[in-house]
Amino acid sequence: MKEIEQQTTTNEQRIRLLAQQIGFDACGVSPVGFLSEEDRHIKHWLAEGMNGEMAYMERNLEKRLDPRVLVPNAKSVISVLISYYPGNPKTSTEPPKISRYALSHDYHGVVKDKLHLLLELIQKEFGQVNGRAFVDSAPVLEKAWAVRASLGWVGKNSLLINPKLGSYAFIGELIVDLEIESTPLAIRNHCGTCIRCIDACPTGAIVSPGVIDSRKCISYLTIEKKSALTDEELKVLNGWCFGCDICQEVCPWNSKITISKCEELMPKQEIMSLLPAEMRTISDEKFNIIFKNTPLFRTGWKKVVMNSNQ
Ligand code: SF4
Ligand code: SF4
């Protein structure tokens, strides 16, 4: 691992370099604190019932809004991005379609392993540092921290958009007890007057800029909704059997991005070899072999096949 020149770089820059060496595409730091703006938004969103059946979103609100409740003595949030963009494979463009993020091995493990490695390197550089790694698995408002770390802005499709990576990137965090001076360079929201995602969403799930009503969102319906979909809900899936990428496909910030450099996040060969139409008749056994350790596995054969047949 390359020795980092300590005299000429700030601690934030040193951490960015370590993250880059591990394979993260972007990294930034922000001091911990209470997320007061998000407090208002999330409470309004929950009060309107826009979380649907995701009751877990109502729990641990105090941890979501303040990482110091989650990690005692927390001082800084180190946010990272890693692209998973696989291009436009037929599994994500021909019905029944699978969202691009779900074509590889489960990203939670891949990204978390890299975050643990980053923590080890930070400990080598800075001495004793305690911290915890999070990837979409605990009450952390990832997008809010990524924005504070100057990694992008939240688009009208409610996704984090990084000027170089677009929105097909996973977000992870290390919450650490190390104070790190940071120089946030707030990235302006570059959505401007564009409303392509709002216009393209087939279900009207983007109810206002940056606000998704999960109950209408195909991604929620095909993945998270536990109770059986109604006939009306099945009719609006628009060819998606797992997730939905429409509001990312139309976003101009995704039009010139390059394929992810992360081998572990590339689509599994078994999935790429599967003809999309085969999803409609795939057996339970074959599904479990092909989709083992992918995000589809947790949702399960029954629901995915039912979605595929609409
Ligand atoms: S994921 Fe699909 S359904 Fe959900 S907001 Fe985006 S376009 Fe609409
Ligand atoms: S499609 Fe347009 S409005 Fe929507 S997130 Fe992208 S730039 Fe913003």
Question: What hetero molecules are bound to the protein chains?
Answer: iron/sulfur cluster
Strand content: 5-15%
Tell me about the largest β-sheet. Answer: 4 strands, antiparallel
Contiguous helical run count: 15
Radius of gyration from CA coordinates? 20 Å
User: What is the N-to-C order of secondary-structure elements (H for helix, E for strand)?
Assistant: HEHHHEHEHEHEEEHEEHHEHHHHH
How does this structure look, described?
With 310 residues, the protein is α+β, with helices and mostly antiparallel strands. The chain has a domain at 11-176. It is 35% helix and 13% strand. It has 15 helices and ten strands. The protein has helices at residues 11-22, 36-47, 61-65, 67-70, 90-93, 107-126, 142-148, 196-200, 218-224, 231-235, 246-249, 269-272, 284-290, 295-299, 301-308, and strands at 26-31, 76-83, 97-98, 131-134, 153-154, 160-161, 169-176, 206-208, 211-212, 240-242. The strands form four sheets. Strands 1-2-7-4 form a four-stranded antiparallel β-sheet, sandwiched between helices. α1 packs across α6. Mean pLDDT is 94; it is low at 1-6. The structure holds iron/sulfur cluster (2 copies).
